[in-house]
Amino acid sequence: MSNQTSNTTLTDLSFFNWVGQFTADFLLIANLLMTPMGLVANTLSIFVFLGKRFESNFIRNYYITIAIYDNLTAIIAFIYLFPFGFRLDLQIMSVVSCRLIAYYIRIIPQMSAWVNVMLTIDMLSTVKRVKRNGLLQNTKTFIIAMILLLVLFHLVDAPNLWLRLENVESGNTTRVICTGDPFIVLFRDLISQVFRVYMPYITVFFLNLWLIKILTQSKRKVLNNTSRKDWSFAFSIMSMNVFYCINSAPLSVIIILTQINANDSYYRSYITIFSLFATYLNMFNHYFTIFINLKFNKIFRLEFKDLMRKWLRLKAKQRIRFAEDNSLSYSNSIKPFDQSIKL
Question: What string of pLDDT tens digits covers the 343 residues of the chain?
Fold first, then answer.
């Protein structure tokens, strides 16, 4: 009987060690691969929206703001998750890191999601012609709206500032965790999901339905360049919203499942594995929206091609200049033949 118990214990330990190693390897590889690609993709999107075709369209400011927050999301996710690849948890280094990492890893993605909601509302008002230039297409109004959103989410996520470090005994070992009172942790997770996933995506779902209705039932011919831009933006926004909802759904389910049977070690291990994939599927929302714009936004696609052509021409000029400089250096290094030498 004792041998059977011992074998079971060894099997359990082997499985738990495998889960720990898999988690570390996954986070190490995923962060090293996806974070740089996401930063490059978002930065590239910013340069595209700064292009000539978007100069007269204020709505580009929404896209640029979203790309900036997506880059910030990628950076703070890297700061938080990458050390796990080396079995390090920055949150338990100090009470300050415990609170601030938990605080801003929620605020920044929420900002990205809600700027997207504002973008959808403004686009809807433009297509509907409630106001020809959109509801917030004024620099001063836009900046005030961004500041108010930022203040709101600092207040909404304030429960994270009540987290603390605790020593938890597990078998013969003691480990430090960043946690808080059960009510605060539950309330924190609930608020985070409501404001990051459910509210913004339920809102954009109904806004999308409204947009689809307007675009399909409208008999107005798109004759001028401004209207073409508006409709191109509208289709890309709808596609981006669908992309966001699909990628966010698994993580929301996992967070709910985490609260069920939380004391079962095997259950927690499987949830950990599924949460890894769900987390990085959700991170696609912050890494790769450039592909949605390339697919569904014709103006973005044309500006992207122009940017790539300019970059290729610049690289070609640099190669030519480099070759000319090398040729000149080589010719200067050759010593002239001395005609005065006598045999």
Answer: 444 444 457 777 788 888 888 999 999 999 999 999 999 999 999 999 999 888 888 888 999 999 999 999 999 999 999 998 888 888 888 999 999 999 999 999 999 999 989 988 888 877 776 455 556 678 888 999 999 999 999 999 999 999 998 887 766 677 788 888 888 888 888 888 888 888 888 888 888 788 777 766 664 544 444 456 666 677 778 788 888 888 888 887 887 787 676 667 788 888 889 989 998 988 988 998 899 889 888 889 999 999 999 888 887 887 777 766 666 665 565 555 454 444 3
Cα(128)–Cα(199) distance, rounded to whole angstroms?
23
Residue-by-residue DSSP string for 184-226:
HHHHHHHHHHIIIIIHHHHHHHHHHHHHHHHHHH------SHH
- For residue 46, give the amino acid letter: I
Tokens of 68: 């900036």
DSSP state of 82: G
According to CATH, the topology of domain 15-310 is: Rhopdopsin 7-helix transmembrane proteins (1.20.1070)
Specify the DSSP class assigned to residue 91: G
Instruction: State the residue for tokens 């004759």.
Output: 223
